[in-house]
């Protein structure tokens, strides 16, 4: 219902241990502040879903919140690896994680099917690759009219979908623009949703490509200016490319990461 | 590989970017991967292919960035685009529908049939190196009219056998893509910092067709993990023209 | 390639007897002028596709252009029946037409599948209705993950898709806004496409909800101000509700229709 | 039917619109058919249900028109909407996904289980009357939480057997919708110009629960094509309040 809550309240109310949670935002509007709040609240055993895990899931994985990762591309864009993710996959540190791996096109179709209330989606994908050998959620399906074989993937229905938007209005409607990613699908496919926003405005301005989510399709709205840092909010902030570069040495080293984590949880050593 | 050649006039990375850019024809519609493909595609657009349409999987159609985007989600891509759409739409209505002439991809590893691995080195469940994974590449490789691949040359990259096929090139060779029902024709060129490889018209095996200036066939062979086929009419890649170099450096400096 | 042509040239080049043609526009931006041009050029045996045939297909059917109609709702909105369509269905006048009937949701999914390059689409639809008894292009499909039964419909791939938009720019890119319907899908699913526009502008203004089709995804652009009359173009013209009402007596009477038709073809009696 | 009753204070059409409007609770999300459903839904929004969210299949979400739209594609619907989306999206992401509380439909014919025909009278291939067809109704009837139907009462409209089931109500009665896997609960009320009918909680057969002022049970029976069930606690519909009438007439006058 577009209820205004603090980020702390919103995460406390909707995110529980063992749930499937998605924090989406395709390289833009990534809801980092919400991810940090999940870390602070000590959630565990989460199944997390994202097209591109990016630093936000590297941080959640490193903090030990994650039991399973569903993803498409797990790198630090333009920099290199996600070392916390690699440490978990390669060395089971800080805990083993299960990986369910798709392509972006496949995950996007899973989001579409989820938003559309269908149990599965269909695409021309994965054919001839090794992905289907290792990912159980890839199946074959025949066209009932032509007999052609295509690929089916199951819908995603997280317990909680979390995104960041530029603006909410006073009724709790939400608007975002720029690169709009799969956020609408994430919110609509999820049982509950939280949207962090840069600010509350009296009225939305005219925006080419602006996406509006009506208040009744969103559970909670939390005002968190700068919530996507080091990602960015088009027309509000720039991507902090330096932070992305500086993350590499932090994430490579377990102690450096622990130190960073203490800064987030307020337990600085 | 040294990245400096020709008395410091240009680097091998610059040669690679220029050679890759030359592959892109004017007016083609190109689905662009981030990194080197994006550099090459934008260089092409500013040189001989002003009417090339660049599409990014972040949903930006017809972007004309005046600097190199830092990531696939750089705001400059959406600000300069003719149209911006969501990620579901870019993959389904634009890529999957067969509307894209050329897919421009990078790779971590490649084999002799231009199949790509960007997923794991070693066993999938106990990898020695966990790479980033698929991203948009499998469907770009499947659904574009043709595919251009660009990556630096080394034995770790050009391997006899892939541990994981993330994106299909020519599969096991001649006829394999058709047999799988893929509509795109697959990789048409692989551009490295040493050379240009093209699939043999019949067998589809990558064949050395052009070495970059100052590179010998043996240089390429020793950096390639399989018994390399060499074209009878092997050529030498024209060196970067001063205009190409100037434009490339300007693009990079602006970033 | 967004080539600027006269409407006459565009229709002459792309629309041929026996083809499947779609003139879309969901109650708004209906490309009436293009329909009249098809009538003037005397096309025959067309399969025409539209969610809502509206007056435009009543006119094409009455003029004898149509062999088969694929549709979802065939009425004169707010007025009553489409009498030329009824005369064809009930009395085979001026020629018999085949009818392939769907729901709007089913046809929208057929458009989506067409635009997405898939041979079929999937929906929760038609269950328990008589539609599947009479329409062959409705089939059942099982989810490969849950076993749930859903409905499949084949993609639509017209030879020519025709829409009306508010604006083109000088490069042949096209923009429309307001109620945006299934026009994007129509253009993308069709082998060729024609867009009539109100005007050519130097640059598109910022518009909430504006849809842009890049020039290279469109074959021909024809400047036809008022092209959607008696439908409307948001921010350019109002719907001519009086014409919709006045159509009823014209279409009810074969002579009155013949007279109207002569006005379109320039063969006034 | 006379459309004037009660000494000209209000017409039976007005009674029908008012009674239908009363069915819509405040805060519900309602998928609105054009015509009478749209009139009733907008009247409700301006009376007791200011927070009702009206959704039109033309892609308008949360429209607040200040006059009655002339068609489902009236520009006033998109201008006053909170969000506008395409037709593919409105049916898939919003209706099909089960996000809509109430579907508000008109009908040409209805049977005792509130199944709807808007397709043909007579045989499908040789109809005596070709009606407009399905439009959005089959999936509105299938996928909304509940459905309210409104149509004028007559023996031609309330029939023993439908020639064509365009939109499923309660099918053949109790349990049929569940058996077909439909997630919406189906019709909860039928509002005519004579009365209100509701499905029996067990059998799902439409039962006369309320007659409009000045209408007798026999009036309803003689306008109904099947043996009509009458509720034991049959009531009388409260007549239109003066505020309801004023608001309804203002809406209509503005159109």
Describe the structure.
The complex is a heterotetramer, with two copies of chain A (269 residues) and two copies of chain B (255 residues). Chain A is of the alpha/beta class and 269 residues long. Chain A has two domains: 3-102 and 157-254, Glutaconate Coenzyme A-transferase; 109-154, no CATH class. In chain A, 30% of the residues lie in helices and 26% in strands. In chain A, a hairpin with a 6-residue loop joins strand 9 and strand 10 (149-154). In chain A, helix 3 (54-62) crosses helix 4 (83-91), helix 5 (104-115) packs across helix 7 (183-189) and helix 8 crosses helix 9. The mean pLDDT of chain A is 96. Chain B has a single domain (12-253), classed as 3-Layer(aba) Sandwich (Glutaconate Coenzyme A-transferase), CATH 3.40.1080. Chain B has 255 residues and is of the alpha/beta class. In chain B, helix 1 crosses helix 2 and helix 2 (36-46) packs across helix 8 (242-253). Chain B has a ten-stranded mixed β-sheet with strand order 6-5-4-3-7-12-13-14-15-16, with helices on both faces. In chain B, strands 1-2 form a two-stranded antiparallel ribbon. The longest helix of chain B has 12 residues, at 242-253.
Characteristics:
A: 269 residues; alpha/beta; Glutaconate Coenzyme A-transferase; 2 domains; ten-stranded mixed beta sheet; three-stranded antiparallel beta sheet; 15 strands; B: 255 residues; 8 helices; globular
Structure summarized in a few sentences:
The complex is a heterotetramer, with two copies of chain A (269 residues) and two copies of chain B (255 residues). Chain A is an alpha/beta fold and 269 residues long.
**CATH homologous superfamily heading of the largest domain in chain A:** Glutaconate Coenzyme A-transferase
* Helix/strand structural class of chain A: alpha/beta
Q: In the residues of chain A, how many domains can be counted?
A: 2
Radius of gyration of chain B: 17 Å
Assign an overall shape of chain A: globular
What would CATH call the architecture of chain B? 3-Layer(aba) Sandwich
**What is the ordering of alpha helices and beta strands of chain A?**
EHEHEHEEEHEHEHEEEEHEEEHH
């Amino acid at each position: 219902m577009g209820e205004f809550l603090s980020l702390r309240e919103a995460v406390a109310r909707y995110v529980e241990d063992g749930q499937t949670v998605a924090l989406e935002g395709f390289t833009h509007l990534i809801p980092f502040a919400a991810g940090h709040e999940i870390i602070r609240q000590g959630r565990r055993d989460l199944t997390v879903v994202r097209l591109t895990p990016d630093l936000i899931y590297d941080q959640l994985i490193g903090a030990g919140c994650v039991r399973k990762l569903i993803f498409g591309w797990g790198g630090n864009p333009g920099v290199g690896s996600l070392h916390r993710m690699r440490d978990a996959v390669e060395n089971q540190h800080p805990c083993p994680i299960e990986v369910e791996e798709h392509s972006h096109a496949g995950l996007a179709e899973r989001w579409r099917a989820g938003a559309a209330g269908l149990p599965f989606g269909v695409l021309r994908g994965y054919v001839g690759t090794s992905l289907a050998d290792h990912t159980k959620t890839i199946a074959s399906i025949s066209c009932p009219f032509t007999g052609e074989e295509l690929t089916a993937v199951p819908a995603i229905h997280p317990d909680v979908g979390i995104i960041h938007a530029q603006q909410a209005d006073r009724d709790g409607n939400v608007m975002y623009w720029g690169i709009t990613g799969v956020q609408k699908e994430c919110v609509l496919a999820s049982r509950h949703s939280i949207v962090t926003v840069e600010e509350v405005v009296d009225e939305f301005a005219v925006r080419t490509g602006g996406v509006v989510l009506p208040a009744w399709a969103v559970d909670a709205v939390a005002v968190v200016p700068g919530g996507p840092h080091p990602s960015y909010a088009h027309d509000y902030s720039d991507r902090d490319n330096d932070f992305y570069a500086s993350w590499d040495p932090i994430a490579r080293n377990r102690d450096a990461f622990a130190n960073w984590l203490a800064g987030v949880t307020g337990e600085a050593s | 590989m040294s990245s400096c050649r020709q008395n410091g006039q240009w680097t091998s990375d610059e040669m690679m970017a220029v050679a890759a850019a030359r592959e892109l024809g004017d007016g083609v519609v190109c689905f662009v991967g981030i990194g080197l493909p994006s550099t090459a595609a934008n260089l092409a657009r500013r040189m001989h292919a002003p009417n090339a349409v660049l599409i990014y999987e972040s949903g930006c159609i017809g972007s004309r960035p005046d600097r190199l985007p830092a990531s696939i989600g750089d705001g400059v891509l959406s600000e300069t685009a003719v149209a911006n759409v969501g990620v579901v739409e870019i993959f389904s209505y634009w890529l999957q529908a067969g509307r894209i002439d050329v897919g421009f991809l990078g790779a971590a590893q490649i084999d002799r049939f231009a199949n790509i691995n960007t997923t794991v080195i070693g066993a999938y469940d106990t990898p020695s190196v966990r790479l980033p994974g698929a991203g948009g590449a499998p469907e770009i490789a499947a659904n574009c009219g043709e595919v251009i691949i660009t990556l630096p040359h080394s034995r770790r990259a050009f391997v006899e056998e892939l541990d994981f096929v993330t994106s299909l090139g020519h599969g096991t060779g001649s006829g394999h893509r058709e047999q799988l029902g893929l509509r795109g024709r697959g990789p048409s060129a692989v551009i490295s910092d040493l050379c240009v490889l093209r699939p043999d018209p019949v067998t589809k095996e990558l064949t050395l067709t052009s070495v970059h200036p100052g590179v010998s066939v043996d240089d390429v062979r020793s950096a390639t993990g399989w018994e390399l086929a060499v074209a009878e009419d092997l050529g030498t890649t024209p060196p970067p023209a001063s205009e190409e170099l100037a434009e490339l450096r300007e693009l990079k400096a602006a970033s």
